[in-house]
Write a structure and sequence with these properties.
Radius of gyration: 21 Å
Strand content: 35-45%
Number of helices: 3
Shape: elongated
Strand order of the largest sheet: 1-3-2-6-5-4
Order of helices and strands: EHEEHEEEEHEEEEEE
Length: about 180
């Protein structure tokens, strides 16, 4: 899983007007939620935050938040929600969810099919039925993507199932192992 570091500060202003003033100064408001505890209001420098969020877009990533002005200081979080202006695309607000790196959680991981199937070379058509898989494990044990070599697939063959995917040792698959992911027809 990707790991990224971000710097932030505790936000002390609230309300519609002050939030607009923050955004005009290129500061993005954010909230940090941590399972039943009081949320922490944060603020980020917009250009740096936008660049960091763009680098992890579409991936499962553990973000290490260094919070200036917070008693805890450093927290491990996941990006929960990103709010953007629908017309300009300007970053409006970000929500983070604090996680425990030692506690198993559920993640959706992309499946990347690599190579050209033998059956496709012989005139068959590749059918991709599943391009993600649900896994459970500690956040740092979860792979960013699962790469599957489809070169040996032949036309009219059984295809590859979730059971054929190779996973790290401490990761559990939450899918039925006999479900077909990809096949050549």
């Amino acid at each position: 899983m990707l790991q990224v570091c971000m710097d932030s500060k505790v936000r002390t202003v609230f309300g519609k007007g002050p939030m607009r003033q923050l955004r005009m100064r290129e500061i993005t408001p954010a909230n940090l939620y941590s399972g039943g505890k009081t949320p922490v209001s944060l603020q980020f420098e917009t250009p740096k935050l936008y660049k960091d969020l763009l680098s992890i877009h579409g991936h499962n990533a553990v973000v290490t938040l260094k919070v200036e002005g917070d008693a805890v200081g450093e927290r491990h979080v996941l990006v929960q929600e990103i709010q953007k202006d629908p017309t300009t695309g300007q970053l409006l607000h970000v929500d983070f969810l604090e996680i425990d790196l030692q506690k198993a959680a559920r993640f959706t991981v992309a499946i990347e099919y690599v190579g050209t199937a033998k059956g496709v070379d012989l005139g068959g058509e590749l059918h991709v039925y599943k391009n993600t898989v649900h896994l459970r494990g500690c956040p740092l044990d979860i792979p960013d993507v699962i790469r599957v070599d489809i070169t040996p697939l032949e036309q009219g063959g059984a295809g590859l199932t979730f059971g054929d995917l190779s996973l790290p040792a401490n990761v559990e698959m939450l899918e039925k192992p006999d479900v077909t992911c990809v096949a050549v027809q």
